[in-house]
Design brief:
single chain, 277 residues, five-stranded antiparallel beta sheet, rod-shaped
């Protein structure tokens, strides 16, 4: 006669308890593992509205971004941009256009632009920033083409930071000065002094303008014309070269101002002269 295997109830209960604890541990491990792997994918792409722009004339830098995930929202997502030298945002923070439902704040500190997204930002969110950039008038050299880019970060991103592609806009600037001379009389007489005014205008403060440094204005007096006196262009005093009969003003390393004028007083001592100068 076969014997029946009997298991004591207390032993079965202990085994069930051990199995239950094992299953709880395994589920905890799986959940923890899932949580550690849960993340969002960030993407950002930039483009510009023009290939070239005069200094002082704004252009638009557009950033398209996305926060992708099947399960998780983006945590502490920010878009940052370092402005190149001689590049500013036209209008400050007002020069940044964005979707208010996705962006919490925009800040500019020095050359760093920070766009903070709402937190958390919903998985699957896509959006666009439009930033009005402008090259500084006067100091931006012609042909200057800095790299323009941005990056996006998030604390639960699979990769962070993610950088955008690089965009380029060529700066256009030119140094231009116009000089004129106007006499206070049209009938000079021999031996009597008369005065004329030398004036200049400089487009350095206009769009596309470029500062002029180490500038010199030289006025060569005609043969038969004698120098009497002159005045300064603002703080820039004149020098007179008697050997060559030349009156000069030199700005050295100081930038030329937008406009200025000075006077020169001369006289003719003989009816034989050449006024071609």
């Amino acid at each position: 006669m076969k014997k029946m295997l009997q298991i004591k109830p207390s032993l079965l209960s202990n085994r069930l308890k051990l199995f239950s604890r094992f299953m709880i541990i395994m589920i905890t491990i799986l959940v923890t593992s899932y949580q550690s792997k849960a993340s969002v994918d960030l993407a950002i792409n930039g483009s510009v509205s023009v290939d070239s722009a005069k200094s002082g004339v704004s252009f638009v830098y557009t950033l398209n971004y996305s926060i992708s995930s099947l399960t998780d929202n983006g945590q502490n997502v920010m878009i940052t941009m370092t402005l190149p030298t001689n590049v500013t945002i036209s209008g400050g923070t007002a020069g940044v256009s964005f979707d208010k439902s996705q962006v919490a704040s925009v800040a500019i500190v020095g050359s760093i632009v920070t766009v903070t997204m709402v937190n958390p930002i919903a998985a699957g969110s896509t959006g666009q920033l439009q930033i009005a950039l402008v090259y500084t008038v006067g100091t931006t050299p012609n042909g200057y083409t800095p790299a323009i880019s941005a990056q996006i970060t998030g604390t639960n991103a699979s990769i962070s930071p993610v950088s955008s592609n690089v965009s380029y806009v060529k700066a256009l600037a030119i140094a231009s000065i116009q000089v004129s001379k106007t006499a206070n009389t049209t009938n000079a007489t021999i031996g009597n002094a008369f005065t004329y005014t030398i004036s200049y205008t400089n487009n350095a403060t206009s769009n596309g303008g470029l500062n002029l440094y180490s500038t010199a204005i030289n006025d060569t007096l005609p043969v038969g014309c004698s120098f009497v006196s002159a005045t300064a262009f603002g703080s820039v005093n004149y020098t007179y070269d008697a050997a060559h009969n030349v009156v000069s003003w030199k700005w050295s390393n100081t930038a030329l101002s937008a406009s200025g004028n000075a006077t020169v007083t001369v006289k003719y001592n003989t009816p034989n002269f050449n006024d071609a100068s």
